[in-house]
Amino acid sequence: MPDSHRQVRQVFLQTIDHAADAQAPLQSLPQPYLLFLGDTVEEGFAKTAFGLRDWAPDKCTGEYALVGAAVSTGLPAMTPQEAQRAGARSLLIGVANSGGVLADNWLPALVEALEAGLDIVSGLHMRLSESPVLAATAERLGRRLIDVRHPPRDIQVGTGRKRSGKRLLTVGTDCALGKKYTALAVARAFADRGVSTDFRATGQTGIMIAGGGVPMDAVVSDFEAGAAEMLSPDAAPDHWDVIEGQGSLFHPAYAAVSMGLLHGSQPDCIIVCHHPGRTEMLGTPGYALPSVEEVIDLNLRIGSRTNAAIRCAGLSFNTAHLSAEQAHALMEAESQRLGLPVADPIRGGAAFDRLIDRCLA
């Protein structure tokens, strides 16, 4: 990771504590973490580990991968025993397989972590305690099995009531292309300008970074809008909640969470996140990515149901696969074509400044 990118992300750590204080924390997570990568071979399925590395490096001791893994965060490779001696307090499952289940071939490594004196933190759909082996081992050793991806029990259905304060929601052309990173970077930029702001986490990685939030993809559909209302309550008129988006209205599997989050967030503005060059929806071959124009139009039409004043502030491009020159040329051309700011928040610069200006206008 380039040093400039690392510095941009680390600056945000100065504002994380404020955001966490403003949200009801799920629980006190044992930190620092040893990031578990399992046997993952695709980076897209290790976004939890990469998110923690990029936005909370001070909470990460190292990584632990199984034989056959082809993904690395670049952190020091450690066994659970080595990590525990280095100060780690838990092993955090940094990958999400299809269905979010505990893979059988992970269990020996997870048991090893418990025996080394580490708790286990998971953002999977499957609860750690559903594994008899892990449950019995944790009970025998007095270790904790901590599941983050489970919502509070007191969520109500959405009311549609207009709340005070201002809200920004990141939306996308697809999954896993930068909605969380964009929200984190925008919240940091707002705070740098002296704007009262909170990052509102809606996924397991964001929750692990911020210390609170609601895992929206684990909420029953009828309560999605209500969960979003709970996540972003009434606030001062000049306060901004920057809400991490989920899924895409166009995704054949995950559109439901995007719809509920859009209605319940009642965003005053959206930022559309896109990965230039991606042609198919992640995990669903044969489904083409929509154009950014389609995404802007549909999100504004649906979002206007609960906030008639919703607007698109601009676009966030994930250009990590491009050179600086290629990225600049592409974003400048798309900005001219669309009449909106287009920026890569991780690259920053004047383009990102213009996007922030438009958000706050």
Automatic annotation (TrEMBL):
Residues annotated as domain D-glutamate N-acetyltransferase-like C-terminal: 157-350
Classification via InterPro entries: DgcN-like, DgcN-like_C, DgcN-like_N, P-loop_NTPase
A Pfam match: DUF1611
Domain D-glutamate N-acetyltransferase-like N-terminal: 70-151
Protein's name according to its UniProt entry: DUF1611 domain-containing protein
Organism: Sphingobium limneticum
